[in-house]
Amino acid sequence: MTKKIESNSFDPDQLKALIVYGRVDCHLCQNMILALQNLQEQVLLTFRLLISTPIQN
Known about the structure:
Strand order of the largest sheet: 1-2
Low-confidence stretches: none
Order of helices and strands: EHE
Number of strands: 2
Largest sheet: 2 strands, parallel
Strand content: 15-25%
């Protein structure tokens, strides 16, 4: 049996950590990181960054 999660039943206190995958010099990744940092001021939130770098040949 699966439990249906209502869209308005999110409890931010249950959120432990996010992993953010990004790329060097990616403006969308930078925007997401900034948004998460701003969100940390409102809810209990931690996140880790995993940034990939281009492979040099």
